[in-house]
Amino acid sequence: MSPLSSYRRLIALAGPTYVLVAFLGRLPLAMSQLGTLLLVSTASGSYGLGGLSAGALAVANALGAPAAGSLADRIGQRPVVLVQSLLGATGLLLLVATVGGDAGDATVVAVAAATGLAMPQVGPLARVRWRPLTSGTGPQQRRLVDAAFSYEGAADEASFALGPALIGLAAVLVSPSGGLVTAAVLLAVFGSAFALDPSARLVPRPDATVHPGRLVSVVFVVLAAAQLLVGVLFGATQTGATVLATEAGQPGVAGLVHATLGVGSAVAGIATAYLPERIGHERRALVAALALAALSWPLLLVEGLLGATAVVLVLGCAVAPYMIAVFSLAERVVPRPRVGAAMTTLASATGIGYALGSSVAGRLADAHGSTAAFSVTVTTTLLATLLMATQQRRLRAATEAGSGRDEALASTPA
After folding, report:
1. pLDDT per residue over 193-242, tens digit each?
2. Angle at 164 between CA 308 and CA 246, to 5 degrees
3. CA distance 32 to 322
4. What is the CA radius of gyration of the chain?
């Protein structure tokens, strides 16, 4: 089955409406952090308070996502995502009202954190639905699931490029608060639609009398560390771009520079489906990590925004293949009843890595400029390469065991 045929088959199985809803449902999370930063900074005149509020939202979401994923595994995605969508939308509107009122700084930060805690991780949970959606496709299922994860990786990257752009557009056309109001409406409508889509009922819930299996293992810790590192890459690269743009007297361009990372990544993510099936995901992750290391070091040489934009665009072409391989490995190696928790945990690791990368790169940049911030990016890619190179045998063994388990389940009469 060709990649184009795989994508057409996936759309036919899920329905074009589901594909659209699942994409739009993940945009509010991509919009919320920058939207909070702009809103709070503009209203208070303090970038410190804006950054603290945006960071509180991001960290709370990262910490709460695994618990929400585990709950969705136990009772089903529909009630969990529906409640989160409505609470998250309410939280965004409450944040707008709080910032527009006379609330103190601590209240603003607390509301931002509560909002982040409530917002659903639509992208990771969408990944969980593809195996049951493709369950009747026989020997083609493995190829279809791989194509689905390639699409999901591209969709995530596209959302994190489009989301901030929508925030900026709403801020220009309406006001800084208009961006978060837009995110709230999108979450209430499309987050709820994602929750209520019939595909949510296809995700099997575990037998209450049977232990669902252990999520945390050495292999899963390796995969979580891999995602933590790519989160550090995101944070350090965005910080470096911000510092470089500020040094050039064009701070507003920083977001556009970082957005090119998502553009390159989205294109490469779609193309990942063209890789031969015989190339295992552990090998793909290693090759992608090597590519990250090779493509990141020119950041240490750039002196202008044009050069940085070109390097970041090319660097993005290795990001999605790396993340797709990591998520695909997780889907293969964790027990089936724990896949939702696994996907959301990996997303959380990315968010925590982003905060870590931003913090470390920012401190270095204060003392030594943009090159120091970009050195965090380069160092992180080397660590990712080392991690994947040393864990190839363990990842391959775990993947083979997971594939054998799936084949045994598929051959068991219903």
Report:
1. 999 999 988 887 765 555 556 777 899 999 999 999 998 998 888 778 87
2. 40
3. 25
4. 21
User: What pLDDT, on the 0 to 100 scale, is given for residue 403?
Assistant: 62
Q: Distance between CA atoms of 222 and 207, rounded to whole angstroms? A: 28
Are 174 and 166 in contact by the 8 Å Cβ rule? The answer is no
* Number of residues in the chain: 414
Q: What does the alpha-carbon distance between residue 185 and residue 193 come to, in Å, rounded to a whole number? A: 12
Residues 6+ apart with CB under 8 A from 368: none
Share of the chain above pLDDT 90, in %: 38
Closest to 245 in 3D by CA, of 408, 59, 370, 412: 370
User: Can you tell me the distance from the alpha carbon of 213 to that of 37, in angstroms, rounded to the nearest whole number?
Assistant: 40
User: Do the beta carbons of residue 281 and residue 330 sit within 8 Å?
Assistant: no
* 65: nearest Cα among 340, 414, 336, 302: 340
Q: How many CB atoms lie within 10 A of CB 249?
A: 7
DSSP collapsed to 3 states, 12-30 = HHHCHHHHHHHHHHHHHHH
Asked if 262 and 238 touch (Cβ cutoff 8 Å), the reply is: no
Q: Residues 60, 116: contact at Cβ < 8 Å? A: yes
- At position 227, the amino acid (one-letter code) is Q
Neighbours of 352 (CB within 10 A): 20
Q: Which of 143, 194, 142 is nearest to 25 (CA)?
A: 194
Q: DSSP of 236-269, one letter per residue?
A: HHHHHHHHHHHHTT-GGGHHHHHHHHHHHHHHHH
- Of 52, 51, 50, 34, whose CA–CA distance to 42 is shortest? 50
